[in-house]
Amino acid sequence: MKRAAPWLAASLGLALVLAAFWPGYLSWDSAWQWWQARTGELDPGHPPVMVRVWQLARLVLPDPGGMLLLQNLAWWAAMAGFAQARGGGAWRRVLTVWAVGAWPALLALLPHLWKDVWMLALFAGAVACLAAELRMPRRRWRLAALALLAGGCAFRHNALPAALPLLAWIAWREWPGRPLRVALASLVLAGGVHLAALLANLAPGARDTPVWPVVAMWDIAAVSIAEDRVLFPPDWVEPGLTVNDLRRDFVPYVNVPSFESGQLRLNFYYDYTPAQYAQLRDAWLSLPVGHPRAYFGHRAEVSAYLLGLRQAAQPDFQVLQPAIVPLRDNPALAPPSGFLHRSLQPRLDALVDTPLFAGWIYLVLAAGVLAMCVLRRRDAGDGLAAIVATSGLLIALPLLLLAPSADFRYLAWLVAASLMAFALTTRRANQ
């Protein structure tokens, strides 16, 4: 019974999400990728791997609800596998599935058809495999975790740092007590995962559009406003752009309004030479040295919104986007409805400004688990818990300097990793 219990609990969780939120929520990003899946056109600015999965899903499943089914199937399977590996009696395993899988800050994200949810589910699956490998040391578990990490990195451009500690753990489990081999293997695995993610996102014939200028231009706009002078290279702005124009459009928690007037010449809509990209990159990288107070002040403000330190001032749409955005010729969809939806969504919305949706809580939890495990070093379970906590920290910390907005979904893996790491500290290896 205890072996079946987590899978039954996960099945109920899957059924709940599908019944309450079908066919899922489509933000602008989701609607854009749905349009790509329908038309076959690819935009490398969003991972093409998600479009390809969507194209396969719509061949055999209702569209777009099929993507809701697949991403939640991946998530709840990861939760069941993790609970099984954690051990304990039937009810302990059931509670693990529901406590992590239906944690409000995660449950609220699961209906959104986002690449972030795919990365979340695949990384959680990798951790489940590594937890299972502690109970039954087998290479197949490590290989499965490696494949899932490669998949997660394909869905999110910034996922590789979070994968690095998990890859190092895989190498250490393969060659324990051989640090040089572990270090070299970790580098090889990281390179292989990165290459696999690149290959999965190849888009022959599509325009190759780097995504970093979005962050660079937003940062330059913020510093220009603070310094009261335009710091952009001339080719990247419309002639006559003033600081007042930048100030009019700028919002401290999201970059999109800065580009809506078209006075910033975003590379998604213009062709630039390598020399012009170099000019923008040099202007961006000079900010911390040339304008440290303005730059780090801007980044501190973005981080305050991202980590939930300014929840009252942050719009709820930066946390959840429970809607279906119409885009181009995408078919009109009836939004989620029914008794379960009316029971769940308002309650989740009401929690948006509570600590459950404050990223700093999970940052502290992950750091606390890491510190406890390093000091305690009780067994291999503590080692894996420390690795998972580190993975969560490494998805979040780079965002303090690189986040293009303060969307809570960027911290989805931090939330799950901190909860899973904490659960691993109470793992029962022999049950």
TrEMBL record:
Protein name: Glycosyltransferase RgtA/B/C/D-like domain-containing protein
Domain of life: Bacteria
The keyword DNA damage is assigned to this record: no
Residues annotated as transmembrane: 64-82, 94-111, 117-134, 182-203, 357-375, 384-404, 410-426
Species name: Arenimonas donghaensis DSM 18148 = HO3-R19
Keyword Transmembrane in record: yes
Keywords for the protein's UniProt record, in alphabetical order: Membrane, Transmembrane, Transmembrane helix
